[in-house]
Description:
Layout: E1 27-28, E2 35-38, E3 49-50, H1 52-66, H2 71-85, H3 91-109, H4 112-129, H5 134-151, E4 156-160, H6 168-171, E5 177-179, H7 180-186, E6 209-213
Antiparallel strand pairs: 1-2, 2-3, 4-5, 4-6
Amino acid sequence: MNNSSTRAKCVCPHCDEKLPKQPKRKTRCPSCGEEIYVRAKQSLFKRALVTKDEAIVCDELPILEAYGYTGDDFIHRWEDLSRQAGQNVMPLDILWGILNELQHNLAKKGDLFELSNFSYHMAIILNKEGKNSYHCLRSAAMMRLEYYKKSKEITNVQILTGKDKSCENCRKLEGMILSINDAMIDMPIPCEDCCSHLFDKAHTFCRCHYVGAQRVW
Length: 217
């Protein structure tokens, strides 16, 4: 399911203009100026040169496979939805449809720990897309608190940061211990004043997270 271009063709996936040479890593098309990504070891697209959105989809396939979705499953869903829509549905839209479905299934199972991890991963994907991921980070933090509260074995949590990868505002929270109830009320993370970045330079990405802790008086 894709363009008729073969993997051997050295053309821009945006404008189809021929490139002077086969790129080995991310570059920009000299004709249209759009970013070109190289994903040679994938089976979704008939070409190794892909767009940013297509690269995100390729990179997420191993995650989908861990939840039981193979590359063939993805292609079949892509073909079916495109047929229903009467036009080619964007592969990134297919990816998000599957991710939302998986998130819904985790919520039905009540697997709060995995749901927290999954929400955090969705935040990373949004950041790769160049979108605000704060709501997913907040959901991940809340699900982690819900998980600890439900366990009834942990009453306090500690905030850990990304150390030198976190900004000064986040590092001020390093080691903070508070009760689960207080954390749920105050929601200190994700840090609203975070100014560090992950993939996208236009949107911040807070790396702070909770671990279970004992209050030290």
